[in-house]
Amino acid sequence: MSAVNVLRRRCLQGLLGSACLPWQAVRAGAPVVLRLSHVVAQHTPKGLALQRFAQELAAISAGKMQVQIYANSQLLSDDDEMQALQLGAVDMLAPSLSKFGRLGFPEFELFDLPFLFQDAAQVHRVMQGRVGQALLAGLQRQRLVGLGYLDNGFKHMSANRALLEPQDFVGQRLRVQSSRVIAHQMRALGAQPVVLDFGQTRRALAMGVVDGTENPISNFWTQRMHEAQTDVSLTSHGYLGYCIVVHQRFWQYLSPLQRAWVEQALQGALAWGNVQAQQRNTEDLQALRASGHCRLHTIHAAQRQRLRQALEPVYQGLAQRIGPQWLVQLEKERAAA
């Protein structure tokens, strides 16, 4: 285990040892404080939506419930946060959908499939339909409660060259989340996937540990990745979203009224956050273009089709792992008018 991982483990142990379940020990009349950790900056779409949730929950509950937010990997890294939730070191997370695959929910990697969705409306139809709701219900297998979905947006490729054709990817070391679908995607294009914490990506790009990565523009801009990359290819090849999740232990501790407050506050915050995601990605793209730091490349229909054809084995591989019925149902909901 590296020195960095040892330090993280000690910090996690300290959290667990100091006050694992503080909401169980609140004095009469004191507010329930919900601890929420995430790994992106506060002014990203996710960061803004979670701040909105905290504000709405405090207002709806008249201050009887409060949210303490730890943003930008301040408290926990990608690797630590799911274990921390299961052990009680935090109460709520908003992990990317990709992270559920390694917890035993490979069906969540449906959302990682490349060139699957044309727009956010298609994504939302699937999330609100049978597929999305079945995914949330299935979290009970690990004693988790899924409370909703949140957009970040569509991902684009960055590197020190344009990445628009399958041959452009050959030999590139590309940072990815821990997702078998995304890793398979990169290998199918001839690139080498490198799994790294999101918080380590900017430094890895600057040091040349990896050659490029994929991200929505808001993540790319707020993490200043444009200072370490020369080219951004506007591929919109994949969707990045999040699932708001708590542990059953925490959820069962809350009264029915408190659960209703949380659900009401989340419903409003997530709807608001999805609008913010679209606006923020548009604004950050304008800022990136104005900065002059990167060359921006637009993908054409023929290039998109060649990439889609090269990535067909990724669909076949996921269907073999989770069963074809998931993809059949998803396609019905995605294509519905």
Automatic annotation (TrEMBL):
Keywords noted in UniProt: Signal, Transport
GO terms for biological process, alphabetical: C4-dicarboxylate transport; transmembrane transport
Record's GO cellular component terms: outer membrane-bounded periplasmic space
Superkingdom of origin: Bacteria
Gene3D superfamilies per UniProt: Bacterial extracellular solute-binding protein, family 7 (3.40.190.170)
Keyword Transport: yes
Family, per entry: Belongs to the bacterial solute-binding protein 7 family.
Name of the featured protein: DctP family TRAP transporter solute-binding subunit
